[in-house]
Design brief:
Elements lengths: L16 E9 L5 E8 L7 H6 L7 E4 L6 H4 L6 H17 L5 H22 L12
Antiparallel strand pairs: 1-2, 2-3
Helix pairs in contact: 3-4
Length: 134
């Protein structure tokens, strides 16, 4: 199984690995791949402990949407939802005054806008509001 090393972070995050799963072309021409992120242990995450102290995850498989939501129904995570999560985290960091996050947020918001414009032509999608959630 190949790994996604091109965007690997430095520091402690360098231990995280992203395995690239099967790539499938959908009817609408979009190519979707499944990814498995590993190299972490949620037992050391205070947020996970508050929810279920007995459960620790060591990997997460992201199943991406296959086909159009309007035709095939929601069957996986959309790129929009992943980008919205990134944008929300960057927005919170920007509001805390962390350097570099404002520029990264602009780029993620630009990517969301481009996807929404494409999607509006393919299927009437709703705009997501980027409001920080704490």
């Amino acid at each position: 199984m190949p790994y996604l090393d091109r965007y690997r972070a430095g520091g402690g995050a360098a231990r995280l690995t992203v395995a690239v799963g099967e790539t499938i072309a959908s009817d609408c021409g979009a190519v979707r791949t499944d990814y498995t992120i590993s190299g972490y242990d949620t037992r050391r995450n205070p947020s996970a402990q508050q929810k279920d102290p007995n459960k620790g995850l060591e990997k997460l498989t992201l199943l991406l949407q296959r086909g159009q939501v309007g035709i095939d129904g929601p069957n996986g995570i959309t790129l929009e939802s992943l980008l919205a999560i990134c944008a929300n985290e960057l927005l919170k960091a920007k509001e805390l005054g962390l350097e570099g996050h404002a520029h990264a947020l602009q780029n993620v918001e630009g990517a969301l806008k481009a996807i929404r414009q494409r999607d509006r032509r393919l299927r009437g999608s709703h705009d997501l509001q980027l409001v920080p959630v704490v």
